Amino acid sequence: MRLAALVVMLAACQPLPPIGAQRAAEGELKNGFPNPWERALFMASNRARSDPATVKGPQSTIMPAQPPLVNDYDLERSSRFHATMLEKGGAPLMHPSPCMLKSDVGTSGCDGSPACGCTSGKTCETCGNCAAGTDPFARIGLFRAAGGGGEVAAAGYGDPWAVVDGWVDEAAGADGHRQIVDGASYGVAGFGHSEGVAGACWPTFDVGDFGFEMPAPQKLAGAAPKPIGGGAGPYRIYATWADPALGAPSTIAAVIDGACTTMTKELGSPTLNATYFADVNLDTGCHAVYVLGRDASGARVTYPSTTAFTINVGGGACADETAQPQAACDNVAPPDLAGPAAGDGGSTVNPGDPQNPGDPQNPGNPGDPQNPGDPQHGAGTPPTVQGGCAAAPGASSTAELLLVVFALALAARGVRSSTPRRRS
Question: 209 with 65, same domain?
Answer without folding.
Answer: yes
